[in-house]
Amino acid sequence: MKIPLHLAKKEALHAIGIDPFPEAERQARALSLIDDYRKFARSLTVMLETCTRCGACAKACHSYLGTDDFYNIPAARAGLFRKIFSRYFTLPGRVLGRLVGAGDFDAETLGTWMEYFYQCNICRRCAVFCPFGIDTGEIVIAARHILTQLGLAPGFMVNIARNELTTGNNSGILKPAIMDSCEFLEAELKEETGLDIKIPVDKPHSDVLYVPSSSELFTNSDTMLGAAKIFHHLGSNWTLSSTLLEAANYGFLFDLDIMKKHNRRIRIAAAAVGAGLVIQGECGHGWRVARMCTEGANGPVTFRMEHILDFAADNLSKLSIAKLPLRATLHDPCNYGRAAGLIDSPRKIMKACVTEFVEMSPNRERNFCCGGGSGLLMDEMKDIRMRLGKMKAAQIRELLPLDYVALPCASCKAQVPLLLKHYGMEEVYTGGVIDLIGRAMVMDRK
Amino acid sequence: MELFVCRILPYFAFATFLIGTTVRVAGWLRSPVPFHLTLFPVRKNRTGRAVSVASEFLLCRSLFREDKLLWLGVWLFHVALVMVAAGHVLGITFLRDQFTLVGVNASASKELSLILGGATGSIITVSLCALLCRRIVNANVRRLSEPDNFFELLLLLAVALTGILMYVPGFHADLPAVKAFMAGIISLQPIPIPHNTPFVIHFLLVNLFLLYFPFSRLLHSAGFFVNRVMLVEVPPIYPTPVGNTPRSAFATKILHPDIPVSKNRAVEREADRL
Description:
The structure holds two protein chains of two kinds. Chain A has helices at 10-15, 26-40, 42-50, 62-67, 74-89, 91-96, 109-117, 125-129, 136-150, 155-167, 175-193, 221-234, 251-254, 256-273, 284-298, 308-314, 334-340, 344-353, 382-388, 390-397, 410-422, 433-440; strands at 208-211, 238-239, 277-280, 304-307, 324-330, 354-358, 404-406, 429-431.
């Protein structure tokens, strides 16, 4: 299935430090990049070579179930990489060629790579059901990284990475705009609660650095309001950093060097404000990178790092909460459940905040991805994304009538409302888990 | 020919099997695991993690959750394979007298050997046929399959069938002679091979299997552990405990240019200091 991905222009690639390769040299360069990557990460070779092509992953993958395209079966998707790997890096592939599934690198190779490695949400669900635990996401990350080094990357993701590198957030907002937004949100909090709840930026001598998703200053501002109320109520000495207003780390999804650079900023920003605790906001892959990759990407960490959902769940008894009269469900972002083990805290919070909490089925580490993960939020991919989200829509439909779907991840927050509209369920409200706490908290007017 | 089959091939095949497998696995292990790949939920203590890998290994729990029918075929096949392997070791050592060790009389031990051997042989054949059928009938799996997938199944099937044939009247192998031949090979004093067609083919196919193993997808048996161990790694703890060594060169690699973050002096000073 062709996908309408808009590729990044040369200038945009230059801005993130990529020098695109002329087409004639791409093959040789691609092979040397594969060679580098297999020495860089064990997972690539083991996962490519252990697959027995049993096909058990087909029914586990929302991408295949939603598109019905053979190459969206995880084993077939990985097969596009395995074919080349086998041909150039293994003895049987070199000698026996097609008999062992090896195939030449040809004019179509990179095109099919772009197509199918950008229809995977890196959700790791295949790894849960594979008898060997093969995580096709690992192969997709490798392939996308290699494609980017060759100069093949979606313009959308390149622009976001460029924003992350130059401004420290995906939206590309600079400090004056950040200050403005925070003032606006503070005014909103004042109006709502009558309290002077601050949203500090770059405040020196802070104990806590809160790293939100930059969308919390605009589209998902309810999440920021909720977070501010929690910190205020608990008396936390917290701040935002104008240099790292982004939990997301798009580099993880297409260029690991960029991931390393953006990730390094966590320690720089924490040290700049003197924070001993970094709290990451509602962002799926952002939390996976922060929790699982910070040590691997930039070495030992000297501060504590927590997710705001764990932080809120631990302090739940101190927040005075009055249950909201809602029938609500929770979507487990893939990067929380399977990839970072953040499973119980959001449930604990949901049960405390709403009168009727219902579980999706399947849930927790077996939950289906919403189809918006791994950076596929570009407009041109909307139709494909609606198909990737088919399983999620079906899961939500089973729970109707429903008031609220809690989506503790910025990508899910962007994708699921579109899904609900597309599949005729626009009456259901969506938002974060922290948003719910914010709305359920009873604030003292002093 | 006799010299090659009896004195060279078995040793060459076994050495290839051992060395080849070791080299392949060592090749995997040579590359680092730059980031934690823990697949949650994961048990907190060491024993718990070992138990989860072991239960996955013995029961294929992930597959059971997804596809019960495939699980049945796969599980029966592998269990029968292990039993057949054990049966061969016992058979070559005790020649059907093994059960006398647990207090059964000699004729009952022979009978028990025959029944168990016959049962596992049948299970292996039937489960292999089922797996082969699945590869052919299921359209997706057929498309996923490469010629080597079929070759592996057919090779194993041929090994199983020739093994069973040795018990069929008319093809009967002289078992004491076979035992003596195998014992000769194992004790490094090879003797001529018994002239029984099913046995000769069976023997040659097993050698082919050993030669083929390290270069093929049959290595999934070793890949299982290398992969699963990555997935049950203890997730990182922050602050990082003192004494943790960098996971890979990537952690200490310096990337340039580190684009200036902002005009905030404090931040830049901090960036320089780090």
